[in-house]
Inverse folding.
């Protein structure tokens, strides 16, 4: 379950931001999840609650923003939106796609006090 390691990394980010910006508590964490990041939203929510228990983010709400995947078509040269790594190009129909975006996860917003 790599979601546990991802949530531990998020907690490290929160601690670093708290030290830099001098806040004491995190109320909300908004994470952007790419379509291909292979993280289960349910597992992330469970692990986030477990990892943040007793920390500056104890009880914080985790909001997940799902982002679509993007790929560059080597045949027609277009950047297209795809929902699966095995999709074909919606422009020309070939399967010669190179993933360009959607395999990442990032903390995009914090609500703190």
């Amino acid at each position: 379950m790599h979601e546990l390691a991802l949530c531990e990394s998020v907690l490290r980010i929160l601690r670093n931001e708290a030290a830099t910006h001098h806040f004491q508590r995190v109320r909300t964490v908004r994470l952007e999840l790419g379509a291909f990041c292979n993280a289960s939203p349910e597992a992330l929510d469970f692990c986030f609650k477990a990892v943040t228990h007793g920390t500056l983010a104890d009880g914080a709400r985790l909001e997940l923003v799902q982002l679509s995947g993007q790929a560059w078509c080597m045949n027609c040269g277009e950047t297209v939106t795809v929902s699966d790594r095995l999709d074909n190009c919606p422009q020309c129909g070939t399967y010669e796609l190179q993933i360009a975006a959607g395999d990442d996860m990032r903390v995009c917003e914090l609500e703190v006090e």
In short: The radius of gyration is 17 Å. The chain is about 30% helix and 35% strand. The longest strand covers residues 26-34. The chain has one domain: 2-112.
